Fold this protein.
Amino acid sequence: MTPRWGTGKSDANQAEIVAALRKVGAFVTILSTHPKLLDLLVYYQRRLYWLEVKMPGESLTYAEAMIFDQALGCVFIVHSEDEALDVIGAEEYQTEG
């Protein structure tokens, strides 16, 4: 049977980013299995964020770039836990480095 949605795979760093976001109390919905959508929908402190998780050096697909062009201000690319926490304004929880 063919899956209803795409068989998209998450980036290697996605699990750690999701865990860090949930640890600070963010509600995270994983969308990476849906074709032509960004990876994570995050709700934190009464604000909604749409995040695209990328490994360092990766670029956006055409579909992802189109979303960024249309939804400026609520879409972000993150490569690490610290970047994701910074985007949602939870800097006090960032790892020391």
